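Slide 14.
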Amino acid sequence: MKRISKRIKITFFILFILIIVGFIPTPYYLYQPGTTEDLTAMVNVEDGYIDEKGNFYLTTVLSIEAGNIYYLAYGLLAPHTEIKKATEVRSDLTNQEYDTLLSFMMRDSKQNAIVSSFSEAGEDLHMENNGIFVYGIAEQSKAKGILKVGDIITEVDGTKVSERNEFINYIEQNKEAGDTVSLKITRNGKIREKTVEIIPFGEESNRIGLGITPEEDFIIDLARQVELKSEDIGGPSAGLMFSLEIYKQLVAKDLTKGYEIAGTGTIDHKGNVGQIGGIRHKVTSASLQGIDIFFVPKDLSELDSNEKNALDEVEKGGYDLEIVPVATLAEAIKYLENLKEK
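Slide 15: predicted structure.
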C-alpha cells in the first residue's frame, strides 16, 4: 500500500509540474503555410466584371504564438513549420502597437491597390493625405518613448505635412543633428504636441532625421466604389493580388484565361511591387491548393530574396507551379494579357 501511495504521489507531482510548465510562455512564433483566398469573394467593384474562367487568389501565412512549450514542441515536429523569436516578428512593439501596425499595413495595402489599379485602368480618383503615419521607430531614435507606432504626424514646427518626401526634406533642409523639432500628432483620435531631438544616421553619412519610418496616411475619393473584405488577414502582402482583381473588374477582361492564379507582394500607389515575408510558406500553400501560376516580387537588389527563395522552394518541393517574378503591376498585367487560353 505504501508503494502504491508513493507512486500516486509521484504521478501527481509529475502531472503538477507538466501543468505548471504548460503555463510558462515561450518567446516564439510558429509560421506555417496558410490559406489561398478567392479574391472574387473579397473584392467588389461597382459594376465590376466577375465573369471569368479562372480565379485570382491571395495567399496567407499562418502565424501562431507559441503560448507554451507544447506549442513549441508541435512546431518542432510539424512539417513546413518555421520557428521565429518574438523579437524577429514584432521587435519591441507592444501588442497594441503591433496590432495597430498590422491594421495600418492592410488598410494602406488596400488603398494603394485601389489607387494603382484605378490609375492603370485610366479611371478617375482623388487622393487626400491626412499626415505621416509612424510605421516604425529605430532603436537609437530619440523619439523612442515619445512617439508610438501608429501616431500620425500632421505638423512639423507649425508647418503642415502630408507627404513622406515633404516631411523628410523639411528636416534635412532645416535641421542639424542635436536640434529639436516640434510635432503635432494624432494618437487614438486625440491631438498631442511632442518635441523630438534630431539624430545623425551613421558616422559615414551626412543624413539626419528622427529615426522613424514614415509612411503616408491618405484617403481616396473614387468615381466607382470598391469594397475590399480582408476579415482577419493583416499586413501588406496582398497588395499586388488585390490590384489585379480590382483592375480585372474595372476593365471587364478575363485576365485569368482559365488558370488558377495566386501571388504575393506589396504595392504602392504608383504600382511598384515590393518584397514580403514568408514567401516559402506561400509557395507551399499555393502548390497544395493546386494553383497554376504564382506571382512573386522580382529581386531588384542584392538584399532582395523573394524571387530566389520562391524558385528554390518550387525546386526543393518538386511543385508543379509556374513562378512569375514582377516588379510592377503593369508587368503582371502584361504577362496576363500575353497568356494563352488554358
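Speaker note: The CA atoms of residues 182 and 195 lie 5 Å apart.
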